[in-house]
Amino acid sequence: MQFGGRRLAAIVRAVTGALTLLAVPAFAHTGADVLLVVNQRSSVSRRIGDYYIKKREVPLTQVCRLNLPPDEEISRDAFEQNIQKPIAAFLKKNQLGERILYIVTTLGVPLKIQGTMAEMQSEASSVDSELAALYGRSHGLDWPVKGALKNPYFTQVTQPFQHPRFPIYLVTRLAGYSFDDVQGLIDRSMAAKNAGMLVLDARADNNTNGNAWLRSAAHALPPERVLLEDTAKVLYNQKNVIGYASWGSNDPDRHRRDLGFEFLPGAVTTEYVSTNARTFAKPADSWNIGSWNDAPSTWFANSPQTLTADMVQGGATGASGHVYEPYLDLIARPDYLFPAYFSGRTLGESYYIAMPAISWMNIVIGDPLCRLR
Question: Coil, strand, or helix at residue 50?
Fold first, then answer.
């Protein structure tokens, strides 16, 4: 993970700190607010879609069925012709463009878009993050493909998500290593309770924005519900976890792929890791994380870094990740994510409140309607 910028002004601490006392109203979002995207050529995508439809009562008229190869990585042209245009046409034909708040993709729908990698002017991105920009582009906003777009919902901790005030869709993905993993994720989203501990694991070098955001998240919530590890020690084998954030494999003191956590239903996670959502193919159980200095033969899917899918397999209900290098300033910020989620916002709202950019490298795994009760 490369570092950029010097964010975290005093106002960030003030806003997040205020949330400990702020009662944010819960806005009832249901399956009627969801467009579900299924790839008909993927049996796992179809199974996930059928299960989610039943659990969240998504109207069948709001299921967009694509027909394309279930490749994880596709070209920009393939995205525009085979994903973006059919979804835009479906929304228009069924007069759903304004009513739909959430787009939910499924395992088996392509994951990432190839493109030039030019730091903050990269053309590569995730499929889901590009779909977040579909509302604005469908309404005439001249948003470029190259580089990240400012997320208009970032930091809007007290504002309900609605159109046209926020000209984006909140896009999440139902994905894991298998159908069973995703089924478990959906079931846990239905059973989410506002209980348990927020676990925040900083790394030893204190003078980083990432560590400061973890501390701000800790200060924004009741101290009896927070475990902040602010030394070189890495936290493993924690119980009753409802939220988790760390540096993942970018913490040089972490040497275990499996955290050994016991996550509660509804638990959400985020890690400062460049490539953790690079694939949802499953490595061998014997594979372990490493560093970029290790031999490439020890890597998995071209990287030694932690995998978002491990969080889902381990019992998390929500997780953020990155398909390519996002740079630290554009990851999901824990100091916004957890206060929003703990105050009653949906999983989808909470992650997008926490993400500075769309049309970028980020993805969100989880049922967007999940909410702590």
Answer: helix
